[in-house]
Amino acid sequence: MKTSTVNLEILKEFGVAGFEAARNLGELNLRTWEKLVEKQTETFGLFIDAGIEMVKATTELKDVKELVNVEMEVAKQFGEILVTKGRETLQVTTDARDDYRSWVEQGVEVFTQQVEKSAKAA
Fold this sequence. Notes:
Elements: H1 4-60, H2 64-121
Helix pairs in contact: 1-2
């Protein structure tokens, strides 16, 4: 076993590496959360827009057949856009999965290097 100075230096390096990993994880979580909230907000906006169009059609159109046609068109457009937003959200989660995997792999690599360095010092 080396001197206490060497042991303290090893502990310091582990601490710094751990803090850096935790900071990176926090940043990754924040970026992912922001992207998901953005997609959720966009989707909520779609619900609002479709609702406004339905109310507008209900108040402006007097012919039932025309009203049904407009409502069907609004529902169709809403569904198509909703599917697109779903795909975009799926891509966000896929990207996040890849980012988390990369973070874990990097953490394992750093930890392995620290352990090897500590073993050599001991």
